[in-house]
Design brief:
Layout: E1 21-25, E2 31-36, E3 39-42, H1 43-48, H2 55-58, H3 64-67, H4 71-85, H5 91-95, E4 100-102, E5 107-109, E6 117-120, H6 124-134, E7 151-153, E8 159-161, E9 166-167, E10 170-173, E11 181-184, E12 188-189, E13 192-198, E14 217-224, E15 227-228, H7 229-235, H8 243-246, E16 249-251, E17 256-257, H9 258-261, E18 265-266, E19 286-287, E20 290-296, E21 304-310, H10 318-326, E22 337-339, H11 354-357, E23 365-366, E24 372-373, E25 381-388, E26 396-406
Parallel strand pairs: 6-22, 8-16, 9-26
Antiparallel strand pairs: 1-2, 1-5, 2-3, 3-4, 6-7, 10-11, 12-15, 13-14, 13-22, 14-16, 14-17, 18-19, 20-21, 20-25, 23-24, 25-26
Amino acid sequence: MTASWVEVAAGSDFPLDNLPYGVFDSGKGHRIGVAIGDHVLDLYEVADRGLLPHGAALQDVDLNGFLALGRSAWHETRGRITELLAEGSTKIQDAGMDALHFRSEVELHLPFSPGDYVDFYSSVEHATNLGRMFRPDAEPLLPNWRHLPVGYHGRASTVVVSGTDIRRPHGQTKPTDGPPVEGPTKALDIELEVGFVTGPGNALGVPIHADDAGDHIFGMVLVNDWSARDIQRWEYVPLGPFLGKSFATTVSPWVVPLEALVPYMVPGPTQDPKPLPYLRTEGDWGVDIQLEVGLASASMDTPDVISRTSFDGMYWTMAQQLAHATFNGTRIRPGDLYASGTVSGSEPGTYGSLIELTWGGRDSIDLSDGSQRTYLEDGDTVTLRGWCQHEGLPRIGFGECVGTIVP
C-alpha cells in the first residue's frame, strides 16, 4: 500500500492504489478527475500545468477521448498521477493550483458517454432461480445458457449517474383475469450488477479474442438495471426485454481502472461443457468484489442491508462477454457499457433482485421502520455498494450507486 500526501481515512474506498476516474463540476463545468480519499483531483488543472501526459484527452468533458487512447496511455497516466499524489511529492502544491476539491462539495456526472449498452445474464444462481420460478416443471436453465453468455442490447440513452431520481415507468401489463391494461408498473425491481467500460474499439467485421480483452476493457462500475417485472412479463416473448428494462439504468460515478483490480482477480468457475474455442481464456478473469444492497423507505435515514453477495462466482467472465459480443464482427466504441446481469449467490440473503428475495412477491421483506416490501414503492431509495478487500492489500471501493423512486 502506497501512502499519499492527501489524507485518506482508514477503510476509505479511494486510497492511492485505486484512483478511479469520474466527471465532476465544481463551478467550472464538467471536468475529469480522480477520487483520492474524501477529495477529487482536477485533472484539467494538473494537465494545464504540463504535469500529465495526454493532457488534451484529460481536458475533455467526459472520459471517452481518454478511453480511446488505449492501455499504454492508461498505464502511463495512472503511473504519473500516482507519483504526483504519493507521499513526498510537492509538484501539485508547488504549482499553486486549485486542483483538489472535497467530493462532498462537487456535483458528479456520468463519467462516460455510452454509445451502446449490453446487459448479460451471467450468474448461474440468478438464472437458475428465475428458471425455477417461471418454469417450475422444466429444467431451470435453457439449453443455450452454459454454451454462451446470454445477453440483450439495452438503451444507452437512459444510462444515468448515481443520485438521479428514477421515475416509475408506465407500460402495458396483462392481469391474470382480463385483457391488457396500461399504467404504472406495480412490480418495480432492482438488479444488482457490475459493469465494464470499453476503451479502443475494433474494426467492423473483426472480432475481439477473449485473450485480448484486457486491451479493450478500461475499468468497472456498479450498475443497477432497474426492471418493471409486470411489464417485462407480458412483453418479453418472443424478442426479450423492451419497455420493462429501457427506462433507466444507474451506474456509479467512479470508474475503477482494471489495473487497480489486478490483485483481486481470481479464476472463474469451472465451465461444463467446455466453451467453444473463441470463449476460452488464459489467466484469471473473475474479480473478487463484495457487494451489498441497501433499501430505505422515505421515512428512513439509513438504508437496511437486504442482500450481501460476491461477484467472484459469475459463470461468464468479462473477457468471455466481450469476445461473444464481438464474435459476429460487431464494433465496440470507447465508453460502451457492458453489464454482468444480476449478481446472485446460492442462499436467499445473497440474491441480487427483489423478485428473488421475495420469490416473485410471495414473501415480503421487513424494513426497520416497520414497513414491508415485495417490490419498490414511491419514495424508496436503493443503494448499491461494492469493494475489494483482502488481508494485507488496500481496500479498493466503487463508492455508491444510488437511486430514489419518484412517481
